[in-house]
C-alpha cells in the first residue's frame, strides 16, 4: 500500500502541478471571455486567440532558452539585449544586401557565441550567472548602440516580414514556430541525454559530475541554447515589426523569467516542465491582451498583472503549503 | 598469489596548504575485500576520491591492472570500471530513483532515452539490495537509509572492476547489510576488487579479507583479517583498547520525563505511546523505514501530528513547534547531517553556537565565549579541525558528525533525542561519545537513542523500543539475556511476547 | 516624447466639427507612455474634446518605456476591441509599419500625433495618415536658435540626453546641436535616461570635470531639474543657465523664479484635441486636415506667466 | 605550522576575499586618477570623493536591505519601485502639510508593510521570492502611478532638502547616514541573534529550523529590513532632489543586487560580509563618476561598466577556481 501511494506521488506530482496551471489558464480565459462579453467586446474569437499567441510568441520563444538555463539553476539576464543586438545586426546585414536566409543563420550563430561566452564565464570562470549575464546585458546593449550609433533601422524587403506575417492554413505562422520549437525542446529535455543532464545539473551538480556527466560543458551548452532562442526571438521580433530598434527587447529578461516561473520551473533548478513555460507565456499574453481590450488604464494593468503573477504561483504552491 | 588489480603508491594531497595524505599506499587484489581503516579524518575518503578522480593528487602513482593510469575526470574512472559509493550521498533529489541510478549512462533507443529499460534494470538492482520502492519515486521522498541503498544500486549497476564502498552501512540496518554482503560476495567471486570502509568493527571480520590501516594520512600497515582481532586493529588505529561491555546505569529514576500518548502521523506513525524516565537511555531499534525518524520528528515538533499528545515533565506541549520543544529542554539530533544537521558552508563555531545563542550574551553576542566553548568541544570530542573557524564542509564525515553532536551537547537540555548519533564515527571517538552520554544521564538528563547499530544499542540502552511499520512492536528491557537476534525478530515479526 | 503644451494663438479648441452623435464612436488613443506630464496633458486635451463631442476614448500606452513591439500589441488589441479610429504617438518614426498595415487591413483610420511617422514607412504601407504636431527636432532647433541669439559664442556647454537609442532622445539632441553646435562649445554630453536623479549625478560629474560650464541643455525637464540641484549645490546658480524641454509645471515654476533659463514648450493638449476632432470627422466621412503644425516655443521669464495660464486648462 | 596556516585560513578567508575587493576598488581609483589627470581633469579631489559617496548613497543604503535578503537566499526586486512609491507618497503627505519628521516615520512604516507583505507571501505562502517581488515591483509601480496620476510632485519646503543636503564637519551628511546605517546593520548581522539566524537560513534552512530557529518569521523580518532600507533610500532620494518622480528608482533593483554581488555575497545566500556591499556600491559609483568625468559616450560606459562588474567578480573567484 505504502508503495502505491508513493508511486502515484512520484509520477503524478508533475501532472498535478501542471493541472493547476492549466486550470488557471482556462480560468483566466473564461473570466476574460465573460467580462469582455459583458462589456460588449469579444475576447474568445478565433482571431483574438491568434493575436494572443502571436503577441506572446517572442517571449514564449525566449522563455524556452530561459527555462533551460533556469533548470540548470542559472539565470540569463542577457536575453533581452540579445534580442536588440540581433535586430540591429540583422538589420545592417539585410540592408547590406545579404540574403535573408543567410542573415538568419548568422544571427543564430551570434546567439551561440553570446551564449558560449556567458556559459564559459559562468562554468569555467565560476562567476555567478546573475553577474555574468547582468554584465553581458550591459555590454551587449552598449555594443548594439555603437553598431549603428544608436539609430533604428527600417525599410526592409518584404521577405523579412514574411517570416512572421505569413498565414498557413489560415493561421499566423508564428503559432507554428512556437509549437515546433517547443516540441523540439521538450523532446530534447525529456528524451535525450543532454536534456537529462541539464536536469541533473540543476538537481545536484556534484552528483552529476561524480556520475561522469561533464557538468561544465553541459552548463555552457545550456547558455548556448538560451542564446540561440534569444536570437530566434530577435529574428521573430525583427520580422514582426520589420523594424530594428536598438532598445528592442529591454525588459524581456524579466518577462521571460516570469513566464518560466509561472510555468512552474523552480528558480533553484532541477525540476519543472518546459512545456508549461508556454502556458506561462500565454497566461501573461492573455492578461495583457484582455486588459487592453477591456481598456483598463495602463497602471491598473500593471497592478493586475502583478497580482495575477503572484496569485498564479500561489495556487501552484498550495500542495507544498499543505505538505507542511 | 594473484597480481594486484590496483596499486596506489606515494599518494599525497593537501588542502589549503595542509597535508591530509602523506605517502599513502593501498594495494587491492582481484576478488578480495580490502578494508580501509582509520580514525575520523585519517584520509580514507580523500584517498578514495583521488582514485576516482574526484580530487587531483599532488604526487604518487596509481597502477590499475598493472598499468599506470591518470584519470582526468570521474567519467574516465567510471568508464574504466571504478565505481564508488561515496560517504556523502550524491543523488539528485528532484528526479526519480531510476534516473539517479542511470545518470551518465542512460539507456537510449534511436538516440532517445529509453525509460522503460532503465526502470526495469533499476528494479533489478534495487531488488538485489532489497529496496522495495517503485523506481519512479523521487529521491527527495526517500529516507537516509533508502538513499544509501539507491547509492549501492547505482554503484553495482556499473560494469565494475573495482568497487569502493565508503561507509555503506552507516545508515542501514542488519537486514540490508546482509543483503549487501551477499552482493559483495558475488562480486568477489567475479574477481572484482572491493575496497570497504567502515567503522563497524564487527562487520569487518565478517566481510573483509585484508585490512590497510591509516593514521593521519599515512600508511600504517596491512594485515590479514583472519590473523588478527578487534582489539589489535583498534590499537593499530587509535593506539589504545576500546571496550564493548555494557556499563550498569545507576542514575535511572522512576520519574517519567517524557510521555508520548497515542501519536499518529500520516500513515507512518500509528498509535505510538512511549515513556521515558529520568536518567534513562531508551533505544529505538527497527528496520529501515520503520518510522523511527518520523517518530522522533513528531516528538520534537518538526511534523504536524494528527492525533496524540506529548508531555514533558508532566506539562503537555501545545505541539508542532521545534522552538517550544527546545525551550522546554528537549532537543533532536538529526540523522541527516548534510541536509538537516549542519550548515556546511559555515564554520564549526557557527554551527555549535546556532542552537545555543541564548547562552552567549544578551543583546550582543560574545564571540570570545563562543570560541572558548567550541574549542572545548573540539578537544573533548577530538574533532579533527584546524581551528573553530574552519568550515564544516572541509571536515571529514566523522568529524562533521562530531560537530553535530557538539552543538546539541552544549544545549544542556533534559531530554536528548539522538538519531543515529555515531553514524560514521570511528571506534575510538564512539567511546568518547558514549562516555559523554553517560555523563549526561549522570547530570539527570534522559536520552532516546535511535540507532541501527545493535551492538551500540545493546551496549548503551536501558531498554529498547522496537518499531515495526510505524508501530512500537515491543519495549524490551536490556537485561543480560537480550541479544541482537531478539531485537531483530521483534523488528521483523512483531513483539508477540510481553508488554503492550 | 515630451513637452507641455500650449499654444497661445490657436488656443480655442478647434471647433467646427460639432459632429453628430448618431452611433457611439470609440477612438483609440495611444500616447508614447503615460508616465510623464507631457503625454498626460495630451490625453487630458483629448479627453476634454472627446467629452465635448460625446464620443468614447480608449487610452492605452506602454507601461515604462515605449517600444515598437508594445505599440504593435496595443494597436492589435484595439483593432480587436473594435475602435473606429486610432490616434497614435509613435515610439519612433519608423517603427509602426506592421501596425499601420494591420490598421489599413482592418479599415481603421489613423492619425499621427507629435512624432511624425517617416514618409518612407507611409509609402511602404501605402496608407494616408494625417500628422498634427511639431516634432522634437524642430523644438530643439528652436532652443538652439534662441541660444545663438542670446549667448556669447563659444560658451562652454553640456548636453544631457535621454535614453540612448530612443528617437525622441536623438531628435532633441540633434536639433539642438544642429542649430547651436557651431556657436557653443559642447564640452560634455551625457545620457541621463530622462531621469531626475541621473541628471543630478551626471551634472555633478560634468561640473567637477568642467568647472567653466556656462550653459546646460537638458533634453527633458526632469533632467534639467536634476541639473539645477547639482548647480545649486556647486554654488554656480548665477553662472550657469539651464534650458530644459517639455515645459512641465515644475519647470515653469523654476523659470518663473529665475532658477531655470528656459524650457521648450510644445502643445500636446492641442495635438490631443486636434487628433480627436479630426478623427471624428474622418469617421463621419467629413473633411479633415492633412497636416497641422502645432508649433513650439521657448518659454522664458517673459512669457512664462501666459503659458502657465494656458496650461491650467489641461491640468486635470 | 600546520595549524597556523589553517587558523589564518579559517579566520582570514573572509578577509582574503575582502582584500581582493579592496585592491580592486583602489585599483579603479588609481586608474581613474591617472587617466583623468592625463586627460587634464581631476578625479581624486576631496570634493569629488564626496560626490562619489553622495551619488552612491541611495544605492548603498538600498543595498543594505538587499544584502540581508540575499543572505537568506532570497531576492528583492521591489526595492526600486518602493523608492518611487515612497517618493510620491511622501511628496503628497508633505504637500498636505504634515511635518517632515512624521512623514519620514510614516514612510519607514510603509517600507515595513511592503516588506511584511513580500515576506509573508514568500515564507508562509511558499512562493518564490523572485515571483513575489517581481509581482510587487509591478503592483507598487502601478499604485505609485495611480496615486498621483503619473505626475511628479515638486515645490517642497526647504526642510526636506536639509535631510540630505546639510554639511557636517565640511562633509555631506549623506556620508554620515551611510556609515551609521552600515555600522548598525553590520553589528546586527555579526553580533546579534537575528543576524546569525539570517545567515543560518541562507546556509541551510532545514538545519536552522531543526536548531530551533523560527525560520519563517526570520525570513519575513529580512524582507521587512529590506523594505525599511528601500524606504530610507526613497527618503534620501526625495530629499536630495527635492522632487518626487513616480519613475524614480526604476532599475535600482538590479543596481543594488550588483552592489551586493560585487561585494562578494553569494546569490545562494548564507555567506558574505555586508560591509563589503558598501565597497561594491562605491565601485559602481566610482566607475560611473569617472567615466562621466572623462566624458566617455554613454554606450561605451555601459560596455565598460558591464566588463568591470564581470572582471571584479572574476578576480574574486580566482581562489575558487584554483581550488579545483
Ligand atoms: N575539501 C576539503 N577541503 C579541506 N580539507 C579537507 C577536504 N576534504 C577533506 N579534508 C580534510 O582532510 C582530512 C581527511 O579527510 P577524509 O574525509 O579523507 O577523512 P576520513 O578518513 O574519510 O574520515 P571519516 O572516517 O571521518 O570519514 C580531514 O582532516 C579533512 O578535514
Ligand atoms: N519526506 C518524506 N516524504 C514521504 N515519505 C517519506 C519522507 N521521509 C520519509 N518517508 C518515508 O517514511 C518511511 C519511514 O521513514 P524512515 O525511513 O526515515 O524511518 P526510520 O525508521 O527512521 O528508518 P531509517 O533507518 O531510514 O532512519 C519510509 O518508508 C520513507 O520512505
Ligand atoms: Mg570519510
Ligand atoms: Mg531514521
Automatic annotation (TrEMBL), chains A, D:
It is a multi-pass membrane protein. GO terms for molecular function: transmembrane transporter activity. It is found in: Cell membrane. Keywords: Cell membrane, Membrane, Transmembrane, Transmembrane helix. This is ABC transporter permease. GO terms for cellular component: plasma membrane. It comes from the Bacteria. PANTHER family: ABC TRANSPORTER PERMEASE PROTEIN YPHD-RELATED-RELATED (PTHR32196). Its main location: membrane. The chain crosses the membrane at residues 20-40, 52-71, 101-121, 127-147, 168-189, 220-238, 299-315. It comes from Vallitalea longa.
TrEMBL record, chain B:
Pfam families: ABC_tran. It is found in: Cell membrane. Keywords: ATP-binding, Cell membrane, Membrane, Nucleotide-binding, Repeat, Sugar transport, Translocase, Transport. InterPro entries: AAA+_ATPase, ABC_carbohydrate_import_ATPase, ABC_transporter-like_ATP-bd, ABC_transporter-like_CS, P-loop_NTPase. It comes from the Bacteria. Gene3D superfamilies: P-loop containing nucleotide triphosphate hydrolases (3.40.50.300). Its main location: membrane. GO terms for cellular component: plasma membrane. Signal peptide: none annotated. It is a peripheral membrane protein. Residues 6-241, 252-494 form the ABC transporter domain. GO terms for molecular function: ATP binding; ATP hydrolysis activity. PANTHER family: CARBOHYDRATE TRANSPORT ATP-BINDING PROTEIN MG119-RELATED, D-ALLOSE IMPORT ATP-BINDING PROTEIN ALSA-RELATED. This is Monosaccharide-transporting ATPase.
Amino acid at each position: 500500500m505504502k508503495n502505491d501511494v508513493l508511486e502515484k506521488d512520484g509520477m503524478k506530482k508533475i501532472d498535478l502541478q501542471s493541472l493547476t496551471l492549466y486550470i488557471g489558464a482556462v480560468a483566466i480565459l473564461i473570466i476574460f471571455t465573460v467580462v469582455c462579453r459583458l462589456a460588449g467586446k469579444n475576447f474568445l474569437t478565433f482571431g483574438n486567440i491568434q493575436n494572443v499567441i502571436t503577441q506572446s510568441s517572442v517571449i514564449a520563444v525566449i522563455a524556452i532558452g530561459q527555462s533551460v538555463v533556469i533548470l540548470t539553476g542559472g539565470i540569463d539576464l542577457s536575453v533581452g539585449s540579445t534580442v536588440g543586438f540581433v535586430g540591429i545586426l540583422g538589420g545592417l546585414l539585410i540592408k547590406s544586401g545579404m540574403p535573408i536566409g543567410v542573415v538568419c543563420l548568422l544571427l543564430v550563430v551570434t546567439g551561440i557565441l553570446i551564449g558560449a561566452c556567458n556559459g564559459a564565464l559562468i562554468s569555467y570562470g565560476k562567476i555567478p550567472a546573475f553577474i555574468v549575464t547582468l554584465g553581458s546585458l550591459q555590454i551587449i546593449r552598449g555594443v548594439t548602440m555603437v553598431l549603428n550609433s544608436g539609430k533604428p533601422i527600417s525599410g526592409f524587403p518584404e521577405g523579412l516580414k514574411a517570416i512572421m506575417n505569413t498565414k498557413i492554413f489560415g493561421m499566423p505562422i508564428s503559432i507554428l514556430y512556437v509549437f515546433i520549437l517547443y516540441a523540439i525542446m521538450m523532446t530534447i529535455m525529456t528524451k535525450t541525454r543532454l536534456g537529462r543532464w541539464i536536469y541533473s545539473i540543476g538537481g545536484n551538480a556534484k552528483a552529476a559530475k561524480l556520475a561522469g556527466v561533464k557538468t561544465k560543458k553541459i552548463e555552457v551548452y545550456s547558455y548556448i541554447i538560451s542564446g540561440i532562442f534569444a536570437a530566434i526571438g530577435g529574428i521573430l521580433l525583427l520580422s514582426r515589426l520589420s523594424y530594428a530598434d536598438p532598445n528592442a527587447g529591454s525588459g524581456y529578461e524579466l518577462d521571460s523569467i516570469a513566464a518560466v516561473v509561472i510555468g512552474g520551473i523552480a528558480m533553484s533548478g532541477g525540476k519543472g516542465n518546459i512545456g508549461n513555460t508556454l502556458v506561462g507565456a500565454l497566461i501573461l499574453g492573455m492578461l495583457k491582451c484582455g486588459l487592453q481590450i477591456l481598456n483598463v488604464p495602463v497602471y491598473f494593468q500593471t497592478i493586475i498583472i502583478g497580482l495575477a503573477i503572484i496569485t498564479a504561483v500561489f495556487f501552484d504552491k498550495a500542495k507544498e503549503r499543505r505538505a507542511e | 598469489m594473484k597480481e594486484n588489480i590496483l596499486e596506489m603508491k606515494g599518494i599525497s594531497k593537501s588542502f589549503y596548504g595542509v597535508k591530509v595524505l602523506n605517502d599513502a599506499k593501498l594495494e587491492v587484489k582481484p576478488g578480495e575485500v580490502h578494508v580501509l581503516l582509520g580514525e575520523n579524518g585519517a584520509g580514507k575518503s580523500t584517498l578514495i576520491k583521488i582514485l576516482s578522480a574526484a580530487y587531483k593528487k599532488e604526487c604518487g602513482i596509481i597502477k590499475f591492472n598493472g598499468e599506470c593510469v591518470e584519470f582526468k575526470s570521474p567519467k574516465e574512472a567510471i568508464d574504466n570500471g571504478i565505481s564508488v559509493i561515496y560517504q556523502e550521498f550524491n543523488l539528485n533529489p528532484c528526479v526519480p530513483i531510476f534516473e539517479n541510478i542511470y545518470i551518465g549512462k542512460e539507456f537510449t533507443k534511436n538516440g532517445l532515452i529509453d525509460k522503460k529499460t532503465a526502470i526495469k534494470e533499476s528494479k533489478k538492482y534495487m531488488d538485489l539490495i532489497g529496496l522495495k520502492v517503485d523506481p519512479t519515486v523521487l529521491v527527495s521522498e526517500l529516507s537516509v537509509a533508502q538513499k544509501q541503498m539507491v547509492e549501492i544500486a547505482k554503484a553495482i549497476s556499473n560494469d565494475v572492476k573495482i568497487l569502493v564502498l565508503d561507509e555503506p552501512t552507516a545508515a542501514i540496518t542488519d537486514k540490508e547489510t546482509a543483503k549487501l554482503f551477499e552482493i559483495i560476495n558475488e562480486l568477489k567471486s567475479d574477481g572484482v576488487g572491493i575496497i570497504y570502509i567502515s567503522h563497524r568493527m564487527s562487520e569487518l571480520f565478517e566481510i573483509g579479507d585484508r585490512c590497510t590501516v591509516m593514521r593521519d594520512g599515512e600508511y600504517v600497515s596491512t594485515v590479514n583479517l583472519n590473523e588478527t582481532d578487534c582489539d589489535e586493529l583498534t590499537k593499530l588505529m587509535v593506539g589504545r583498547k576500546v571496550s564493548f561491555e555494557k556499563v550498569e546505569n545507576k542514575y535511572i529514576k522512576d520519574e517519567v520525563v517524557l510521555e508520548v500518548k497515542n501519536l499518529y502521523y500520516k500513515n507512518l506513525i500509528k498509535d505510538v505511546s512511549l515513556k521515558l524516565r529520568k536518567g534513562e537511555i531508551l533505544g529505538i531499534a527497527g528496520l529501515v523505514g520503520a518510522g523511527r525518524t518520523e517518530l522522533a520528528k513528531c516528538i520534537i515538533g518538526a511534523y504536524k501530528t494528527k492525533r496524540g499528545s506529548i508531555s514533558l515533565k508532566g506539562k503537555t506541549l501545545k505541539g508542532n513547534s521545534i522552538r517550544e520543544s527546545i525551550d522546554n529542554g528537549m532537543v533532536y539530533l538529526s540523522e541527516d547531517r548534510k541536509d538537516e544537521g549542519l550548515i556546511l558552508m559555515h564554520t564549526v563555531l557557527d554551527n555549535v553556537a546556532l542552537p545555543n545563542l541564548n547562552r552567549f550574551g544578551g543583546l550582543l553576542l560574545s564571540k570570545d565565549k563562543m570560541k572558548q566553548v567550541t574549542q572545548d568541544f573540539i578537544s573533548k570530542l577530538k574533532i579533527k579541525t584546524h581551528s573553530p573557524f574552519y568550515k564544516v564542509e572541509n571536515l571529514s564525515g566523522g568529524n562533521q558528525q562530531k560537530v553535530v553532536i557538539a552543538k546539541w551537547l552544549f544545549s544542556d537540555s533534559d531530554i536528548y533525542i539522538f538519531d543515529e548519533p555515531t553514524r560514521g564515527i570511528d571506534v575510538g571517538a564512539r567511546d568518547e561519545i558514549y562516555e559523554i552520554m553517560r555523563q549526561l544521564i549522570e547530570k539527570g538528563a534522559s536520552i532516546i537513542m535511535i540507532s541501527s547499530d545493535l551492538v551500540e544499542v545493546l551496549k548503551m540502552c536501558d531498554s529498547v523500543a522496537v518499531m515495526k511499520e510505524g508501530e512500537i512492536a515491543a519495549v524490551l528491557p536490556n537485561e543480560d539475556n537480550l541479544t541482537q537476534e531478539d531485537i531483530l525478530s521483534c523488528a521483523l515479526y512483531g513483539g508477540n511476547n510481553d508488554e503492550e | 516624447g515630451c513637452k507641455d503644451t500650449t499654444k497661445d494663438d490657436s488656443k480655442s479648441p478647434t471647433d467646427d466639427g460639432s459632429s453628430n452623435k448618431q452611433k457611439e464612436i470609440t477612438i483609440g488613443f495611444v500616447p508614447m507612455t503615460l508616465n510623464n506630464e507631457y503625454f498626460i496633458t495630451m490625453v487630458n486635451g483629448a479627453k476634454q474634446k472627446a467629452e465635448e463631442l460625446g464620443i468614447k476614448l480608449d487610452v492605452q500606452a506602454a507601461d515604462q518605456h515605449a517600444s515598437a513591439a508594445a505599440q504593435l500589441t496595443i494597436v492589435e488589441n484595439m483593432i480587436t476591441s473594435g475602435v473606429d479610429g486610432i490616434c497614435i504617438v509613435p515610439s519612433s518614426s519608423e517603427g509602426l509599419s506592421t501596425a499601420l498595415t494591420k490598421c489599413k487591413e482592418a479599415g481603421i483610420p489613423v492619425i499621427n500625433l507629435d512624432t511624425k511617422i517617416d514618409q518612407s514607412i507611409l509609402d511602404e504601407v501605402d496608407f494616408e495618415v494625417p500628422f498634427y504636431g511639431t516634432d522634437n527636432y524642430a523644438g530643439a532647433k528652436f532652443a538652439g536658435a534662441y541660444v545663438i541669439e542670446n549667448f556669447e559664442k563659444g560658451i562652454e556647454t553640456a548636453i544631457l540626453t535621454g535614453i540612448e537609442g530612443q528617437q525622441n532622445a536623438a531628435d532633441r539632441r540633434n536639433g539642438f546641436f544642429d542649430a547651436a553646435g557651431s556657436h557653443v562649445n559642447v564640452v560634455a554630453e551625457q545620457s541621463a535616461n530622462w531621469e531626475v536623479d541621473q541628471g543630478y549625478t551626471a551634472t555633478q560629474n560634468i561640473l567637477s570635470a568642467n568647472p567653466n560650464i556656462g550653459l546646460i541643455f537638458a533634453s527633458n525637464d526632469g533632467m534639467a531639474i536634476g541639473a539645477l540641484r547639482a548647480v545649486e549645490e556647486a554654488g554656480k546658480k548665477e553662472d550657469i543657465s539651464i534650458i530644459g524641454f517639455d515645459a512641465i509645471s515644475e519647470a515653469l515654476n523654476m523659470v518663473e523664479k529665475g532658477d531655470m533659463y528656459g524650457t521648450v514648450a510644445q502643445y500636446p493638449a492641442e495635438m490631443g484635441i486636434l487628433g480627436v476632432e479630426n478623427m471624428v470627422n474622418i469617421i463621419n466621412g467629413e473633411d479633415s486636415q492633412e497636416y497641422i503644425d502645432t508649433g513650439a516655443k521657448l518659454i522664458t521669464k517673459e512669457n512664462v506667466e501666459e503659458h502657465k495660464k494656458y496650461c491650467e486648462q489641461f491640468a486635470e
